[in-house]
Design goal:
206 residues; mainly alpha; disordered N terminus; globular; 7 helices
Length: 206
């Protein structure tokens, strides 16, 4: 795909790698979705950043943050954003179709097969085991992405403080996710705006 076909609102030259077609988007997101047992954060980061290299690590963090704020499943939001970025509305639909088509078929088949065995102790144990693995994958991905905080305008200490406060608010205080997003998110935006303003003033003074 030529650079001119990409959405001009985004800089796609940062990685040097672009999806070649809408079919490439569909296949890539289908493969991604078929690996996402119990959560896809670990898979989507590996596929889009490390393998496909469509996004840098910093770009992935920024896009994932936006995807989390928007209503709906995070990875679905991300697929729409990336598809639209490279091929407009048609690309968004292609990425979304890849994200949903095969998992939908598999879920329907499994639902039919699980109807008679869902109460089995063996099945319940297997599901709990998969949940533990999914939690480990998400934690490992978070650790891998910590290095990107060094270039964040908030500063590493502030990033860690907001992360700890968000964890406490959700895990222990049981605050609604919307309240945490608006509360911590507003603080983060205000501090980032301040820091970026200081950086601009320093650049102008130099």
């Amino acid at each position: 795909m030529s650079q001119e076909t990409a959405n001009p609102l985004f800089d796609t030259a940062s990685t040097g790698h672009l999806p070649t077609s809408k079919t490439d988007l569909f296949i890539s997101f289908s493969i991604l979705a078929l690996q996402g047992f119990g959560g896809v954060l670990a898979v989507v980061q590996r596929e889009l950043v490390e393998k496909k290299r469509w996004l840098t690590r910093d770009e992935f963090l920024e896009d994932w943050a936006v995807a989390q704020i928007l209503p709906g499943p995070n990875v679905v939001n991300l697929s729409l954003m990336i598809g639209d970025r490279y091929f407009g509305f048609a690309g968004a639909l292609a990425a979304l179709a890849g994200m949903l088509a095969f998992p939908l078929v598999i879920v329907l088949v499994l639902a039919a097969l699980m109807g008679g065995v869902s109460d089995s102790a063996l099945v319940q144990g297997a599901l709990r085991g998969m949940g533990a693995v999914a939690a480990g994958l998400i934690a490992a991905t978070g650790i891998k992405l910590i290095g990107a905080l060094r270039g964040n305008p908030l500063g590493v200490p502030v990033c860690w403080t907001l992360a700890v406060l968000s964890f406490i608010a959700i895990a222990f205080l049981r605050w609604p996710l919307v309240a945490v997003l608006f509360g911590m998110g507003s603080l983060a935006c205000a501090w980032a705006y301040r820091q970026l303003g200081l950086d601009r003033e320093s650049g102008d003074a130099a």
